[in-house]
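FW: tagging you since you asked about this chain on Friday. Here's the raw sequence from the shared folder, copied in full. Didn't touch anything.
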Amino acid sequence: MVRPYDAETDEAALWQAKRAFELGLGSGTGGDDKEAKYEGKLTAAYRESWFEWVDRCVAADERCVLVEPGDGSGDGADALAGYVFVLPERLAHVWDAAVLNELWVDPDHRGTGVADDLMSEAVAFARSQDLPLDRLVLDVDRENERAQAFYERHGFSHWGEMVAREL
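HL: got it, structure written out here
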């Protein structure tokens, strides 16, 4: 059952899930250099600043970070079946739309409906926001065919393309 993140009970599991999310972004979609960059940023300082940001977003609206608890048999990331992070309405002008920042499902729970449940809640939350454009946007690696198929199944279509450069 999808529910709002609770900092007192979910922080350790959410961090393990976040690590798995970040490491998944870096592996298999861009070579060793990309994987090393994602792994290298997961420091104690990054964890602290990321949770400060999570706390600010959740203070704005508890629906910003939603979790699906696991079956209770695991520690760490597998204590959560998945999570979704949608930016709060006050940040809608970043893209003039709602922003689905992160969606992650534990590999053991993929194909079980957990991702669908998390997406359904994310869309409901986005629909409740007062947005300049009635859109929910996200960025997905073009090499991640599984994620692209999932998002297409949920009604997402290409709307521009994000590009990046090193600073």
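FW: Residues 17 and 77 are 4 Å apart (CA to CA).
HL: agreed, and The mean pLDDT is 90.
FW: great, closing this out.
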